[in-house]
């Protein structure tokens, strides 16, 4: 029987880490926009010909990348990005739906800093797909140090993964303003309720927010300087300009653009999202101190 072929698309922090992980059990190819001198780096076409693809490019780039590059030939796909498209307010599964049948696609969620995965440190991830068969096929590709779970709650995973990035910015601001651990824990706990409310509106299973995809990833990201989004918050609290912060970061911080998407969606659907709204306002120039005071006052 022909050995199944697998490739990672996007050699940023997360793509490289997933490539490392997936190379433990089988040969795994990798490609990216910029050529890299790394083992098993191939051109895009060779990667697209693989049976299994793991796509790790920023959420805001996905639509144009798919339009320009992707032809569906029956590939099974795992989406590793976490964000909501700001220009349309569409979730990633809605964007992919124009290119890939739902039963051929899954979404990775859960607490997983790339920097730890690439060291082979243990973590647990959820593969979210309407197809359990797709989960089973990908599960065997992951190494022992990554425990995988199955969930059919695609929208719950998507909302949780995207929303926690915005909340991590808020938490970084709280830390940068030295408001204390009480305030930070309150913000994170209220953030969890907020993203659950937002997700429920779009059909998510509320319990997803209490597991790895929700609380797991939120607690990780909103409490560590390893998070790029958290560091954006720290920078904003220290009166740094957003462009300067993002330039220094040199990597994607999805929460910035996702806060725009959430602000628009919550307005359109009349959902109460106070923390995400304040992050949006801070990104658009509101003083972080005023914002946090507005959020935490009686
Ligand atoms: N880092 C982490 O710990 C985790 C990240 N994620 C998510 O994974 C996604 C990617 O994050 P990460 O890898 O860390 O980000 P990085 O900023 O490290 O890398 C993003 C990569 O995407 C590629 N890229 C950017 N724009 C385009 C485009 N228009 N077309 C094709 N490729 C493009 C770039 O490739 P090139 O350099 O070749 O130009 C770049 O290396 C994000 O949604 C993030 O939230 C999820 C879990 C963990
Ligand atoms: O999603 C992540 C960990 O699960 C990474 O978060 P940052 O993008 O904020 O670094």
Automatic annotation (TrEMBL):
Localization per record: Cytoplasm
Molecular function GO labels: glycerol-3-phosphate dehydrogenase [NAD(P)+] activity; NAD binding
Domain Glycerol-3-phosphate dehydrogenase NAD-dependent N-terminal: 32-132
Binding site for NADPH: 14, 33, 82, 114, 228, 252, 254
Signal sequence bounds: none
GO biological process, one term: carbohydrate metabolic process
Active site feature: 164 (proton acceptor)
Pathway the protein acts in: Membrane lipid metabolism; glycerophospholipid metabolism
Keywords: Cytoplasm, Lipid biosynthesis, Lipid metabolism, NAD, NADP, Nucleotide-binding, Oxidoreductase, Phospholipid biosynthesis, Phospholipid metabolism
Function: Catalyzes the reduction of the glycolytic intermediate dihydroxyacetone phosphate (DHAP) to sn-glycerol 3-phosphate (G3P), the key precursor for phospholipid synthesis.
Name the record gives this protein: Glycerol-3-phosphate dehydrogenase [NAD(P)+]
Annotated source species: Arcobacter aquimarinus
Organism lineage string: Bacteria, Pseudomonadati, Campylobacterota, Epsilonproteobacteria, Campylobacterales
Gene name of the encoded protein: gpsA
